[in-house]
Amino acid sequence: MKNRCIAALLSAASLLLTGVLSAVPVSADRTAFTVGFDAEFPPYGYQNEAGEYVGFDLSLAEEVCERRGWELKKVPIDWNSKDMELKTGAIDCIWNGFTINGRENDYTWTVPYVDNSQVAVVRSDSDIRALSDLSGKIVAVQADSSALAAFTGDDAEEANKELAETFKDLRQVGDYNSAFMNLESGAVDVICMDIGVANYEIAARSGKFTMLDEHISSEEYGVGFLKGNTELRDEVQETLFEMAADGTFERIAKEWELSDCVCLTAPADAQLEDGRETFTVGFDAEFPPYGYQNEAGEYVGFDLSLAEEVCSRRGWTLVKQPIDWNSKDMELKTSAIDCIWNGFTINGRENDYTWSVPYVDNSQVVVVKKGSDITALNDLEGKVVAVQADSSALAAFTGDDAEESNIALAASFRDLQQVGDYNTAFLNLESGAVDAVCMDIGVANYEIEKRGDQFVMLSEHVSSEQYGIGFLKGNTALRDSVQETLFEMLDDGSFARIADEWGLSGSVCLSRETENKAETAAETVSFGEKLGSICMQLLKGVGASLAIFFLTLLFALPLGLLIAAGKMSKFKPLSWLITVYISIVRGTPLMLQLLVVFFGPYYLFGIQTSAAYRFYAVIIGFTLNYAAYFAEIYRSGIQAVPVGQHEACEILGYSRTQKFFKIVFPQMVKNIIPSVTNEVITLVKDTSLAFAISYTEMFTLAKQVAAAQATILPLFIAGVFYYIFNAVVAFVMDRIEKKLNYFR
Question: Is pTM, for the whole model, over 0.85?
Answer without folding.
Answer: no
